[in-house]
Design brief:
CATH class of the largest domain in chain A: Alpha Beta
Shape of chain A: globular
Distance between the termini of chain A: 58 Å
CATH topology of the largest domain in chain A: Rossmann fold
Number of strands of chain A: 11
Largest interface: A-B, 54 and 50 residues
Order of helices and strands of chain A: EEEEHEEHEHHHEHEHEEHHH
Oligomer: heterodimer
Shape of chain B: globular
Number of helices of chain B: 20
CATH superfamily of the largest domain in chain A: P-loop containing nucleotide triphosphate hydrolases
Number of domains of chain A: 2
Strand content of chain A: 15-25%
Distance between the termini of chain B: 34 Å
Number of strands of chain B: 0
Radius of gyration of chain B: 28 Å
Order of helices and strands of chain B: HHHHHHHHHHHHHHHHHHHH
Structural class of chain A: alpha/beta
Chain lengths: 275, 559
């Protein structure tokens, strides 16, 4: 059996009394475009932080490309690229200086770091303001730069926390093109996003976390089949909601997600004072 | 729909803001850092309390004495002192100023009047305003005791004077915020501000220098010049307040009223300027610094390779280069590093610098140690919060495939390089301003700098992890470091400078300066052992503190 790109065993994280991530067992095969979904506060960012070494797990085990993260943090970090929640940029460097810096931190030699910096800035369309500091960049430009920094060392796995948040359609198109090229070349991408249409279009496999627990995992087709089977066995009168399975129609990922995390019930609640 | 009347809505909004501030304060006590900050505030509060009570009593006596002796015109002096303190203290000691961005409330349906009141109220509760209000009360009480008939006019005059000062300080702060909202103007202002602060330090030495240079003959000239300024002084707010009291005490109510009217006009002017600024904020002015999307030029761009330092690993070199780029882009920071030379110039103008007065040593003997001590002090500002400027970037250090000690090493190396350059410049400046420092003073000073720098690096590394503070240069009134850091920094400097000073002074006194060098080198070796011990453990400490670091440095919202 192939070594999974990412696997966790009983991954748990507590913040005082709060169980943010509870006994999560993830398995992501190499080469997958993997979407990690969940409602706000479900534990997505906490999980991604633990997978990338930004946060310690309270218990459990993480393996990245067969390496135990706790025992080989530096070796694992060399193989992965990350766009974390806050982008982790250094605002008072220019884009080129930042990419050069990141390349050197990942052990690239000076010439390679400079060459890749040029290529990435051109690919991302960030060459028009070479002397601007990152702090003066727009949000979309910062996102593109963060992604460029995450890939400069040619990682085998890319972790992206909400990469499309606050990004315009043109920038999003550039990011998607780049991610798809990486998948074609054999990289693994682990992404969290609230934009389920994008996840459905890009990802082959997804996992859904809800209140810290992993409630679904598999290919989108597997999840769809599971939800449809569950709906077929249920009494139609007991689930008269917007996400009910319609005969002959394929459920969208959003509908699958809502059925799994139970969001449809909340949507039906009335707020009579709202216009 | 359940809507309240406009008046009660405004009251409720103000009450909600007060409750918000209270909850932010109470919630801050949940963390150890918050509780320690409270302790430091209590100590500062005690200090301000003593200053307030003593100042009130003292100024009360001054007011009483001047009115009793019929020298009311001299009240202009305490009023000028109050005016300067009121306006300059909040700017110079931004650590004690209100630093909550009240413009955040603009997203709520706040009527302009409420917004204006909130902005005004924030300024009224800063220590300078509270102290000055107390001191003005003291003056009014003193005047009232000396001449009860003068009390109503004194109370009115001083109340108007207080209103003028509150409006002026709020206007200054609101316009400063406008200029500081953009990075380039902010950095220009930073340099101007440091120049302004530095220029103040020259007043005393220049006066002494002038008096010494021209001797007693200069005094009659100065006495002749001063009355020329008096008519202009009487048109300034402190002069007008004093003038109103003088006229009233001379039974000339019309002239007193005229002076008060001009004081009111001043207040009106600043009220208008404040209104202009706050209305622009209220109207949603755009101070964004992001560039407009430009047409991408898909041509080749020239990217220079990073630094290459033999014997130093690529990641450490990269951090070193990044630190230098950060320092070189901070105007105020660069200017701070020139401060040791300014101190030497001040020293040159003082009694010890000229060999006059009661200095026991030849002029300039201690110039190099003094400049070097100042250089170490300036370094403290950077070393004690070394992740503050990195802000969100700190996460990168935990994502990159390196041990945290390499990050610390890169930062400490950058600081050490800056310090070494600084010490060289100070030595050259001391040589030019006085005479080349003797070898007997140079060696112990260098040993002392080594000791102090290692201690500062060690404590600075720890505090950078335990009490980090995000440095946001976009807002005026933000602290450069936490209160805990400021206290520890002060304590460490007292101890290290005390030991270094004691060693050099004692050895110089007994004519065996080489002894000081040996003592200080021994201390530096002990400090280096402490540094090495901490360095071995810094990875573990950093991993343990990483969540607190993200919490403090990566948050996007103020307070």
């Amino acid at each position: 059996m192939d070594t999974p790109a990412i696997s966790t065993e009983h991954l748990t994280r507590r913040f005082g009394e709060l169980l943010a991530v509870n006994d999560v067992n993830l398995r992501v095969t190499a080469g997958q475009f993997f979407g990690f979904l969940g409602p706000n506060g479900a534990g997505k960012s906490t999980t991604i932080k633990m997978l990338t070494g930004l946060l310690a797990a309270s218990s459990g085990r993480i393996e990245i490309l067969g390496l135990d993260l706790a025992c080989n943090p530096a070796e694992v970090k060399r193989q992965i690229g990350v766009v974390p929640e806050g982008m982790a940029l250094f605002g008072r460097l220019t884009g080129a200086e930042y990419l050069n810096f990141v390349g050197r931190m990942y052990g690239l030699d000076r010439e390679t770091a400079a060459k890749r910096t040029t290529e990435l800035l051109e690919f991302m369309g960030l060459t028009d303001q070479p002397k601007s500091l990152i702090t003066d960049y727009s949000h979309g430009m910062q996102k593109k730069l963060a992604l460029a920094a995450a890939v400069i060392h040619g990682p085998k796995i890319l972790f992206l926390d909400e990469p499309f948040e606050g990004v315009d359609a043109i920038a999003a198109g550039t990011l998607k093109t780049m991610l798809q090229r990486m998948i074609v070349r054999g990289a693994t991408i682990f992404l969290t996003s609230h934009v389920l249409e994008i996840v459905e279009r890009l990802c082959s496999h997804v996992a859904i976390i809800h209140r810290g627990r992993l409630v679904a995992q598999g290919s989108i087709e597997e999840l769809r089949a599971g939800v449809e089977a569950q709906a077929a066995s249920a009494d139609p009168a007991s689930a008269p909601d917007a996400t009910a399975v319609r005969a002959g129609e394929k459920l969208t990922l959003e509908e699958i997600f809502l059925r799994i995390v139970g969001g449809s019930r909340l949507a039906q609640q009335e707020l009579s004072w709202l216009g | 729909m359940a809507r309240m009347s406009s008046g009660s809505e405004t009251r409720d909004q103000i009450a909600a803001i007060v409750r918000l501030r209270w909850r932010i304060f109470v919630n801050s006590l949940r963390t150890l850092r918050g509780r320690l900050e409270l302790v430091s505030w209590i100590f500062m509060g005690l200090g301000f309390g003593v200053l307030g009570v003593a100042g009130t009593a003292g100024l009360g006596v001054v007011g009483w004495a001047l009115v009793s002796r019929n020298e009311t015109e001299w009240l202009a002096i305490p009023l000028w002192a109050l005016f300067l303190f009121w306006q300059l203290f909040p700017i110079m000691a931004t650590a004690f100023s209100e630093n909550f961005d009240a413009s955040q409330f603009l997203r709520f349906p706040l009527p302009y009047r409420t917004y204006f009141l909130v902005r005004l109220a924030y300024g009224t509760f800063d220590p300078a305003t509270i102290l000055c209000l107390l001191w003005l009360t003291g003056i009014a009480a003193g005047i009232g005791i000396a001449s009860p008939s003068l009390l109503p006019v004194a109370a009115l005059t001083l109340a108007l004077f207080a209103a003028f000062n509150v409006l002026l300080s709020r206007t200054v702060f609101s316009w400063l915020e406008r200029w500081l909202a953009q990075r380039k103007t902010r950095e220009i202002f930073g340099v101007v501000f440091v120049l302004f602060v530095v220029s103040f330090q020259f007043i005393g030495p220049l006066t002494n220098y002038y008096v010494r240079h021209y001797g007693k003959n200069s005094r009659p000239e100065m006495v002749n010049i001063l009355p020329g300024f008096l008519p202009a002084e009487r048109l300034t707010p402190p002069g007008l307040a004093a003038s109103a009291l003088v006229r009233e005490s001379h039974s000339d109510p019309a002239a007193a009223l005229a002076a008060l009217a001009v004081l009111c006009a001043y207040s009106g002017l600043f009220l208008w300027l404040l209104d202009v600024r706050l209305r622009a904020q209220y109207g949603g002015e755009n101070l964004s610094e992001s560039h407009a999307p430009a047409v991408a030029q898909r041509g080749q761009i020239a990217v220079r390779s990073g630094w290459n330092l033999p014997g130093i690993s690529a990641p450490v070199t990269a951090i070193l280069e990044k630190e230098f780029r950060y320092l070189s882009r901070s105007g105020p920071m660069l200017f701070l590093f020139l401060m040791p030379i300014v101190v030497l110039l001040l020293f040159r103008m003082g009694p010890a610098g000229t060999g006059r007065g009661h200095a026991p040593f030849a002029p300039g003997v201690f110039a190099f140690p003094l400049g070097a001590a100042y250089a170490v002090l300036m370094l403290g500002g950077v070393a004690y919060n070394c992740f503050g400027m990195d802000a969100e970037g700190v996460q990168f250090f935990f994502l990159a495939p390196l041990r945290f000690r390499e990050v610390i090493l890169g930062k400490n190396l950058a600081q050490a390089c800056v310090l070494a350059g600084e010490i060289t410049i100070v030595w050259a400046a001391a040589a030019l301003i006085f005479h080349p420092p003797a070898m007997g003073m140079t060696l112990p000073t260098l040993a002392g700098v080594a000791f102090a720098a290692i201690v500062n690096f060690t404590v600075g590394n720890l505090l950078s992890l335990y009490a980090p503070k995000k440095i946001d240069p976009s807002m005026f009134g933000r602290q450069r470091a936490s209160n805990i850091t400021a206290f520890v920094l002060l304590g460490v400097q007292v101890v290290t400078f005390g030991l270094v000073g004691l060693a050099i002074f004692a050895a110089a006194r007994f004519g065996r300066v080489w002894l000081a060098t040996i003592c200080l080198l021994a201390l530096a070796a002990a400090a280096a052992a402490g540094y090495a011990t901490l360095f071995q453990r810094i990875d573990r400490i950093a991993l343990g503190r990483r969540e607190a670091l993200y919490g403090e440095l990566c948050r996007t919202h103020a307070s």
